[in-house]
């Protein structure tokens, strides 16, 4: 039996990087998935790759009504909802004094408010099923500061506080956890490196600074995500699990 057989998951940030790898891994393990993202071309291409067990709904994750739509489409297409995998994120690069106010708001809306919106509309459906799960893709930025990333760091720290609150409020019906990746080789990491004078060197050094001497891969993150939403993790909730090659220990 596959780990997610007969499970239905909404996956945000699904068209690239960690979200895409999670979507591929979930479907490979029997899940039906609703894929969320902005890029219609990439979203439709992923549906072609994954097949009939997937649908793509394009939209702006910062919108409450779009998050409500994702839940509605899950019920219309697959009759239920078991899992939320929340991966949408932007960086909002700029120092406190330089960061435009609208970019601050957009970053928090994308990285934090979207978790609230989707959870708000999904929780009544999740409560109908056994072993329902919410998994938030946070970051080691919830614990560690990075130059010119105030909005990103604040939003990721906030996501952990929200995770713990939901874990308390909706136990034992719904397990709520977070993963905190370190430097993973994704477009977001390369965009983040633009905050440094030499982006390519910054990425290279990030891998070298880990205890395991390499960048993480989206597949590394997808493997942990699968574990945390599966029955293998049935006694884990309210936990933020770091997956960073050991870089926080350096």
Automatic annotation (TrEMBL):
Keywords associated with the record: Oxidoreductase
Pfam families, per the entry: adh_short_C2
Top-rank taxon, per record: Bacteria
Keyword Phosphoprotein: no
GO function terms (MF aspect): oxidoreductase activity
Keyword Oxidoreductase belongs to the record: yes
Coiled coil feature spans: none
Record InterPro entries: NAD(P)-bd_dom_sf (IPR036291), Sc_DH/Rdtase_CS (IPR020904), SDR_fam (IPR002347)
Family: Belongs to the short-chain dehydrogenases/reductases (SDR) family.
Protein name: NAD(P)-dependent dehydrogenase, short-chain alcohol dehydrogenase family
């Amino acid at each position: 039996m596959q780990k997610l057989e007969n499970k239905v998951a909404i996956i945000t940030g699904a068209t690239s990087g960690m979200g895409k790898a999670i979507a591929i891994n979930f479907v490979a393990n029997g899940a039906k998935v609703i894929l969320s993202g902005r890029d219609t071309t990439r979203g439709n291409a992923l549906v072609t790759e994954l097949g009939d067990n997937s649908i793509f709904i394009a939209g702006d994750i910062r919108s409450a009504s779009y998050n409500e739509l994702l839940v509605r489409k899950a019920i219309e297409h697959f009759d239920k909802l078991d899992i939320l995998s929340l991966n949408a994120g932007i960086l909002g690069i700029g120092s406190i004094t330089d960061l435009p106010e609208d970019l601050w708001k957009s970053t928090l809306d994308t990285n934090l408010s979207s978790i609230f919106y989707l959870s708000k509309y999904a929780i009544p459906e999740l409560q109908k099923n056994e072993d329902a799960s919410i998994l938030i893709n946070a970051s080691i930025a919830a614990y560690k500061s990075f130059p010119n990333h105030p909005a990103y760091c604040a939003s990721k720290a906030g996501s952990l506080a929200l995770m713990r609150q939901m874990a308390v409020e909706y136990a034992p019906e719904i397990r709520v956890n977070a993963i905190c990746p370190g430097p993973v080789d994704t477009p977001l990491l390369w965009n983040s490196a633009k905050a440094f004078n030499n982006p390519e060197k910054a990425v290279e050094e990030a891998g070298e600074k880990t205890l395991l001497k390499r960048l993480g891969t989206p597949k590394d993150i997808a493997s942990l995500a699968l574990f945390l939403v599966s029955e293998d993790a049935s006694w884990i909730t309210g936990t933020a699990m770091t997956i960073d090659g050991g870089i926080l220990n350096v």
